[in-house]
Write the C-alpha cells for this entry.
Amino acid sequence: MAKADCVIRGGLVVSGRGIIRADVLVGDGVIQEVGQNLQAPKAIDASGKYVLPGIIDAHNHPVYADKMDTFSLSAAYGGVTTIMPFFGNLAAWGTPGKTSEIIAKMIEEGERISYLDFAIHAAFVAEDDVRTEIPKLIKMGVPSFKMYMTYPKRGMMMPDDKMLEAMAMAAAEGGMAMVHAENGYAIDYLVEKFTAAGRVSREYFLPSQPNILEVDAVQRAATYAILTDCPLYCVHLSVREAPEIMARMKREGWRIYGETCPQYLSLTNQAVLERGALGKVGPPLREKEDNEAIWRGLASHAIDTVGSDSCNVKAEQKEWGGASTDFISGPGAKPRPGNIFEARFGMPSVETMLPVVYHDGVNGGRITLSRLVQTMCENPAKIFGLYPKKGVIQKDSDADLVIFDPNMPFTISAEGMHSNADFTIFEGKGVIGAPVFSMQRGEVIIEDGQCQRKQGNAQFLPGNRDLATYAKSGFPVE
Ligand SMILES: [Zn+2]
C-alpha cells in the first residue's frame, strides 16, 4: 500500500447504502481505506460531522458572468468537487463554430482555469452535423448530447427529425441524449398571445409555460428514445406529472434518467411574483404541489439526480439585458423593463445547491441523507461514466471528499457567495447544515473558509464510451 498522506477521522461516512462511523485514509490522491482507527501523518477531525463524496453537479452553464474559473470556485464553496458544464455551437454561448472544436478549446481552457475536475456535455443545435460530430465527440470523452426541444425563436431548438437522427447516432456509438423537455412552439404561441394582449408582466410568465408542455415534451423525447434505443436523460424536471412518466418508463425497462434542480424543489412561482425577472428560469418555477411531487419522485427513485442548472448572471443582465441583449430577442434588441418575456432566463444556484437540498430535503424529512448522496454523487457519476472514480467513498476511488456540518445554521445571501453573479433567488433563506471542508484527489480545496486549490490542477474527466455500464436499464423504482 502506498504511503498515506492524511486521515479524515471520526466522521459519519455517507454512501447510498447507509451511514457508518469510520475513518477515511487518503494517499496518492485516492482513498486507501475506509475503516476504524486508521493512522496517517496528518489527521483532519470530522467528529460530529458527515463525510460525503464530493458533490457532482451534472448540469451547469459557466458561460455568462462566471466562466469555468469563478464558476468552479463558487461551486467549490458549495461542496461541489466535479462540474459538468454544457458547451456547444450556440450563438448565445460565444463564438460559433463546430461543437467538437469549441469543446476541444473548453477542455484546454478548463484544465488551465478550473478549480475543480470537470466532464463536459455537448449541446447541439439544428446546424450541428450530428453524424460527424457525435463519433468525434465520443472519442474526445464527451458522450452526452443535450438538445433543446424549446426556444425555436432563439435559434436553440433541435427539430424533431434532427433529434431522432442524433439519438440514433448516439445509440449506435454508445452515447446518451439529454433533453430540455418543453414544447417550444406552444410556448412561443402563448407568449405571442399574451404579448398581443399587452399581458407581459410577471404574473403571465407561468401561465405562458404550463405543465402540459413539459409533459408533452418528456413523453415525446421518451418515445424517440424508445424508437432509437438511445439512453435518455431529461434535465431539470419540474412538473408534478414527471415522476410518474419516468417511473413508468423505468418499469418498462427503458434507459431513462430524470434530473431535477434545487429551484424546482424549494421555490414556487411566488418568487417570480415577488422578484420578477430574477426568478425567471426555463422551465418556470411552478407551484407547491409540483415541488412536493418532485421530492416524492426523488425519494421513490423515479427521479435520479439533482443538478443545479446554474446560469450565473448578474441581476442587471436579467432585468435589463445588459451586454447580452441578443440572447433575449434578436441582435440589437433592447428588452423593455417590466416585460417578463424579454427578460433573460437563468439564475445562479450551484453554490447553494447542497445546503438547500440538505435543509429542505433531509432536515425537512423528505429524503434521507443516503438518498441525497445517491442523487448528487453516485447517480451522476454512474450515469455519465465517472463511477467509481467519482461519486463514492471507497478504496481506490478519487479522494474527493466533503466534510459537512449538519448543525451549522446560516442564512443564504448573495454577499456570502463567491460568484460574479450578484444575486441569489434564495436570499434570506435560513438553513441548517453547510459544507466546511473539501478535498479533491487528496488535495485540500476548501479549508477554514478559504480556497486552497490553485488553478491548473483540475483534470478533464472523459466519460465512458458506453454510458450504460453502471446504469444498465435505469435505476429500479421503489
Ligand atoms: Zn441548463
